[in-house]
Amino acid sequence: MTFDCDGMIYLTSTIVVTNDAVLDASGRSIALSGSNAVRVLTVNTGVNLTLRSLTVCQGFSTKGAGIYNSGTVVLFNILISSNRAQAIWDYYQPLNVEGGGIYNLGDLRASSTVFSANAARGAVGFYADSAPASFGGGLYNLGKGNLTNCVFTGNRADANGDYTPSYPLSSQGAGGAVFNGGILSIVDCEFANCCALGGKGSERY
């Protein structure tokens, strides 16, 4: 699929990719926005998605606000920006948040791609040890990933933003830029101004 116009496409529901697809915005200025309300893209198992020269932004979810990948995703000259994985607090089962920009369970190949101002943000727990943890502001990887000539800037993993003397901040924030629990190759990438609050590992963990 190619584009013959420029502009921001505001989504009211997530694009679920169930068949192999290519979105190529070369020569255009195209952004897919989750409208700060929904995840932008979900890629199903066994499906191949290639994105070229576009922006994935303003996604909102608990995991993979920009892209949730269970298949194969190839990114070239992509901006992953201002996506937010946000905890939804549950009194009995606080849920961790993972992958503000991308949550990868499958195969991710990114080149010349910028991850900017994405966040994984926790919520306040009633007890100190019940506050949800936050992992991978830019990327949370449990699958296989290859990053080449990518930039991570201004991404955050914040455990939560509140503090009281009785219930101090105790949940973990890890991997402001990248949290890796799978296989990940990083070649000629830049990391700047990424942070994790409430835990360890601001750039990589």
Taken as a percent bin, the fraction of beta residues is 35-45%
Low-confidence stretches: 161-170, 199-205
Shape: globular
Mean pLDDT, nearest integer? 86
Question: How many H/I helices?
Answer: 0
Could you characterize what this model shows?
The protein is mostly beta strands and 205 residues long. Helix content is 0%, strand content 44%. The protein has no helices and 27 strands. The protein has strands spanning 7-10, 15-17, 21-24, 30-33, 41-43, 48-52, 55-57, 60-61, 67-69, 72-76, 79-81, 84-86, 97-98, 102-104, 107-111, 114-116, 119-121, 134-135, 139-141, 144-148, 151-153, 156-158, 173-174, 178-180, 183-187, 190-192, 195-197. The strands form 5 sheets. Strands 1-4-7-11-16-21-26 form a 7-stranded parallel sheet, with no helix packed on it. Strands 2-5-9-14-19-24 form a 6-stranded parallel sheet, with no helix packed on it.
